[in-house]
């Protein structure tokens, strides 16, 4: 007779567990693909003597803090532009570095989850340690980002409503997923959408370097729009396919996580992602309009045209790179 932990009374391992060990997300070869995060998980778990799930969440918050600090120190040493920025823009610079690097880590884990597919138990009750630690890591990241967004508002008066909503929704989503051990697969796959974060920050840095009229800015912006359509809008469509094709499974699952997942998917796919995609496309028009106005102001009047004189101490035209 098998014991509660799946081992037989004579010490032999159950054939079911043997199969799961060979095909599950925790297979050594697959885990090694994410070796950096795995090392951090284990280091934090040993250091703080905590569970793997708590260690994953703590790792994300600590890693984000370390990256933020290193970015500030190195940028101050190597970048003249950074040193000339005000404190608010320096904060945005470092926060963007965190969002870019950690976002790629989240997107990588989400891509692995999508490639490997939903585990045994389906999209609602499918569980394995990889998905659970991914959700915990994402929770730590979203807690850091929520704190950062609120800090930007309280310290500098910068209100990013959609970003705050996005981060708060992420915190609630991953807390519920971890508490109920449900919907771990879709909440891991949705992290693919964080893959666009590096290009968002690169565009911001190029603008601060007065290079928003350079071909590099154009190239980055075109890549950003393309990746946004593929990895954000495309991931939304994939998740809707999973949710709707397994709708009966969702109906018979836990009510609160089901409502939360469908509600947040509607917000993400109907409001946030289309709105953000529109803003990225609109940045082309805003940039072109800014430099068109600048060139028209710098163009001397044609010969014979009337020029209205301005008396007094007229202020010079604003710099084309003034935000």
Question: Mind explaining what this structure looks like?
Answer:
The protein has helices at residues 15-23, 28-32, 35-48, 52-78, 80-84, 87-116, 122-125, 129-156, 161-180, 184-189, 197-208, 215-245, 247-251, 255-298. With 323 residues, the protein is mostly helical. Helix 9 packs antiparallel against helix 14 (255-298). The protein is globular and about 65 Å long. The model is unreliable at 1-24, 27-33 and 304-323 (pLDDT under 50).
Strand and helix layout:
Elements: H1 15-23, H2 28-32, H3 35-48, H4 52-78, H5 80-84, H6 87-116, H7 122-125, H8 129-156, H9 161-180, H10 184-189, H11 197-208, H12 215-245, H13 247-251, H14 255-298
Helix pairs in contact: 3-4, 4-6, 4-8, 6-8, 6-11, 8-9, 9-14, 11-12, 12-14
Describe this protein with a few key phrases.
323 residues; mainly alpha; 74% helix; disordered C terminus
Percent of residues in β-strands: under 5%
Poorly predicted runs are 1-24, 27-33, 304-323
* Biggest beta sheet attributes: none
Question: How many beta strands in the DSSP annotation?
Answer: 0
Short description:
With 323 residues, this protein is mainly α.
